[in-house]
Design a protein that fits this description.
With 341 residues, the protein is of the alpha+beta class. Among the domains are: 1-110, Homing Intron 3 (I-Ppo) Encoded Endonuclease, Chain A, CATH 3.90.75; 115-170, AP2/ERF domain (GCC-box Binding Domain), CATH 3.30.730.10. It contains six helices and 22 strands. A four-stranded antiparallel sheet has the order 1-2-3-4, covered by helices on one side. It is elongated, with a radius of gyration of 33 Å. It starts with 11 loop residues before the first strand and ends with a helix.
Length: 341
């Protein structure tokens, strides 16, 4: 139960896309459920920032209020919301009305010294010209200067139609194509926002599907939840969800069979104990031995036996024959694995 007291006749609605962390009221207030809960502060332009998984989006209060409590559906390209009393910080639903975009500048004549009745057009008094601009992906694009207001408006309407037409024919790039034989599983603890596949890929389902980028020599991904980020090794994620054995922390490690750390397919991963992993590491250095725990010493010109016990290297001696070093390794391994009485 929230500790925030509601005002008389105040109603609350959850804001879509934020997993219940934010609510908007018909009185123009925004409530955050992070921590103990609080009412968000707004600046003089009635804008608030809503955060989720490290991403922050700035939103105007009056548009939120109208979208959840307004009597008519708002088309953002042709309809806009204005304040009846001209005070943009008064965002009660009773003070808001829906008007056409071409009407908004006329309404603002009462409150602002603007001399253009067209949307996307403003008059520069010092130069006596009309400038036209349009927003695309939250960035303002200047369309040029015109001596007549209608020419500036025509440039705006043309740019708007081109943007709308482009969005119709452009396919959304939010679908991750499946590879042959690929399977996906949800990563526990992230409310279904992240998935890992047996092909070593991790995708995010937040704001549409996309593949996560892995960083560093040992591929890792950063996953977000409740404004907290956590690093995960890609090979660890793949093994935990598709491996045939349970991984024991501090005792086992994941080994890449082909030696390529960026190849995290489950078929390329193997679960080894620390001593087995170090043996594989020694083999990569061209030790000339086909046995685990045996290496050739160029300096002494003999075979050396070794084994790892509790993470420490234990020398088993030097031998003239390779098979003798292998037998010493097998004998010591049997002693370690023998049950204690």
């Amino acid at each position: 139960m929230s500790r925030i007291k509601s005002l008389p006749n105040e109603k609350w609605e959850e804001i879509d896309g934020y997993d219940g962390y934010y609510e908007i009221s018909n009185m123009g207030r925004v409530m955050s459920h992070y921590g103990k809960g609080r009412i968000l502060k707004v600046n003089k332009f009635a804008i608030v920032g809503l955060s989720l998984y490290g991403d922050t989006t700035s939103t105007t209060i009056w548009l939120l209020v109208w979208d959840y409590f307004g009597s008519k559906k708002r088309n953002p390209h042709y309809l806009d919301v204005t304040h009846i009393n001209g005070i943009i910080t008064d965002n009660k639903i009773e003070n808001l009305e829906l008007i056409g975009c071409h009407e908004k500048p006329v309404k603002w004549l009462k409150y602002k010294n603007t001399s253009s009745k067209y949307i996307g057009v403003r008059k520069v008094k010092n130069r006596k010209v009309f400038r036209s601009s349009i927003k695309l992906n939250e960035k303002s694009i200047e369309l040029g200067s015109f001596s007549i207001g209608i020419d500036a408006s025509n440039a705006y309407q043309k740019a708007l139609s081109e943007i709308l037409e482009y969005k119709k024919v452009t396919k959304p790039n939010n679908i991750v194509e499946l590879l042959q034989g690929e399977e996906w599983k949800c990563i526990n603890g992230y409310n279904g926002h992240y998935e890992v596949s047996n092909m070593g890929r991790v995708k995010s389902r937040y704001k549409g599907e996309r593949l996560m980028k892995s960083n560093g020599a040992f591929p890792r991904v950063v996953l977000y939840l409740n404004n907290v980020q956590k690093n995960h090794g890609v090979s660890t994620l793949v093994w935990d969800y598709f491996g045939d054995k349970k991984r024991i922390r501090y005792k086992t490690e994941i080994f890449h069979i082909n030696g390529n750390l960026s190849d995290n397919r489950i078929s390329n991963l193997q679960l080894l104990y620390h001593r087995e992993l170090m043996s594989n590491a020694y083999k990569k250095k061209n030790t000339l031995s086909k046995y685990t725990g045996v290496t050739w010493s160029k300096k002494m010109r003999c075979w050396c036996g070794y084994i790892f016990v509790n993470g420490k290297l234990e020398n088993l001696g030097v031998f003239k024959k390779e098979i003798k070093a292998h037998e010493a390794y097998q004998s010591r391994l049997a002693e370690i694995q023998a049950p204690t009485q």
